[in-house]
Design brief:
The protein is an alpha+beta fold and 427 residues long. Helix content is 47%, strand content 16%. α13 crosses α14 and α17 runs antiparallel to α18. The structure holds zinc ion.
Length: 427
Amino acid sequence: MPSYDSSLEEIKNRIDIVEMISEYISLKKAGHNWKGLCPCHSEKTPSFMVNPSKQIYRCFGCGNGGDIFTFVMQHENVEFKEALRILAKKAGVTLRMSRETAGRAGEKETILKINNQALTFFQQNLKKSPNAGAYLKKRGIGTEAQEHFSLGYAPKSWEDLKKHLEGKGVKTESLLKAGLVTKGDKGLYDKFRNRIIFPIFSLQGEVIAFGGRVMDSSEPKYLNSPETPLFNKGRVLYGFNLAKKHLKDTGNVLLMEGYLDVITAHSFGFRNAVAPLGTAFTSDQGKLIKRFTDNVVIVFDSDQAGVKAAKSASVVFFGSGLDVKVLFLPEKEDPDSFLKKNGKESFSVLLENPLSIIDFILRQKKDKRLIAREAIDIISNISDGILLDGYIKEISEKLRIKEVFIFVELRKLEQRPAPHDIDTGTA
Ligand SMILES: [Zn+2]
């Protein structure tokens, strides 16, 4: 990328590699270099060296090495372009772009700025509203969790936020673009009113959208920001910005249904919990997970909608090269209610033995042939050959079907058009 060359040099000059890597791992001075425990492989004696004069790092244990850009790519799990954007921002370097790209970037920056102002507004309002505070406390979300997830409250008013932001010089047009106001017959009004606010963050922790939940039984229960240049709900998972650094340790991501499930799970120490933003699962979400881990455990309600959602999620995520297991909670429980009732230990026990997707399908009371077809249909989405082989064997053993017939069925399914992202129809 020739147009980036001078910017690259400037970013490298402005960022000290020792200081930057120290944000991720602790480094000690060793002669001219700095050393620490390698973040890429597990070790007890440090073999990870950072050379400040050359501005590079290298691990003598696993051979990993590079500069600030490769380090960010590896540790934030991002592509070069994104690493460049992150580091440019950190260094205060403006990247040279085409006018079109600059326009889009400018628009995103504007929305981000407004979102940050809105977030502060919502957070301050939560502190001022005894009702909202009491509601969260009743749901078991204490101050610590409220802060960890940057929760807020949108007051019961038609234009408090609008007036507040306009008072700060935000243009009406930008408010519309950010999706914070809605156009009605009588003009513009606040989209979120009398709702608990769940900010939605990008992987890098930027507030890109908001979700709002009512505190009573009114509808809709949840409301999300509309899609904006900054926010595409099919590309984000709620809580992923907080969960991402725990996925290496847990070896899997826990996919839950709602924001409250995620918050409760994190509070109980299950910091690998995330949730989709609405009803559809997308291959983009699958790809996002795949950058950090190979395994998804679906923890949905055991009601009919939950079962349907679990099947749809497994179809999409198998297609992204992930392995999918299902954790079944007792009747009428969701992760939030189960954890509060039974505690951390009971949930850990359940987590030790999630169901394979085949066992999950076998639980249904249906004709064996229908079950077999359904199982084969789901595994036909698996893109990883080794994984698929294991599932073919499992179906063969558990349903007593010769492998050759499973292959025949799979071949038939291969002829059909590729599946699209699937809407599960749950709320
Ligand atoms: Zn290493």
